[in-house]
């Protein structure tokens, strides 16, 4: 792969990203929840604390509308409750209910275990390379996107 062309690199790289996304969609479907609901549960468990909708949007890189729809569904099903954040009535903290915690434990906790098993099958140098090259590629894409977007800065 030393002399791979850009079109070939793009096809393979984008295919890997799409297949990874599909894998997580299949996991969500297996557990009977939407992708967005799964990612919200994932982040709430990962953070181990209540988050606001803004924090979820920023962490998940999803639109406010997408997150809001998933939150409404999770709330209607009794998996989360919203509480006003201290000092800010417009901002609400998202808490897992007992039912939500049980759902997260039988869904995203299994995803965490799956991810950890895959992680442990990589060597330390492979783990470091994935993170280093992924960050470098993202930084270069961000630079190019800023040029394309007339110098507007975002992310990172």
TrEMBL record:
The lineage of its organism: Bacteria, Bacillati, Bacillota, Clostridia, Eubacteriales. This is Winged helix-turn-helix transcriptional regulator. Residues 1-139 form the HTH marR-type domain. The keyword Zinc does not apply. PANTHER family: TRANSCRIPTIONAL REGULATOR, MARR (PTHR42756), TRANSCRIPTIONAL REPRESSOR OF EMRAB OPERON (PTHR42756:SF1). Pfam families: MarR_2. PROSITE patterns: HTH_MARR_1 (PS01117), HTH_MARR_2 (PS50995). Coiled coil: none annotated. One of its GO terms (molecular function) is DNA-binding transcription factor activity. The keyword Manganese does not apply. Keywords: DNA-binding, Transcription, Transcription regulation.
């Amino acid at each position: 792969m030393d002399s791979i062309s850009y079109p070939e690199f793009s096809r393979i790289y984008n295919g890997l990203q799409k297949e990874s996304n599909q894998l997580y969609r299949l996991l969500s479907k297996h557990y009977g929840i939407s992708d967005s609901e799964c990612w919200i549960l994932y982040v709430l468990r990962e953070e181990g604390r209540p988050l606001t909708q803004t924090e979820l949007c920023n962490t998940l890189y999803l639109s406010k509308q997408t997150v809001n729809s998933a939150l409404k569904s999770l709330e209607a099903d009794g998996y989360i409750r919203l509480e006003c954040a201290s000092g800010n009535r417009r901002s609400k903290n998202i808490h897992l209910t007992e039912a939500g915690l049980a759902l997260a434990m039988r869904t995203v906790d299994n995803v965490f275990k799956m991810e950890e098993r895959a992680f442990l099958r990589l060597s330390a140098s492979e783990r470091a390379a994935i993170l280093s090259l992924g960050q470098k590629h993202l930084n270069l894409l961000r630079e190019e996107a800023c040029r394309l977007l007339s110098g507007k800065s975002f992310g990172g």
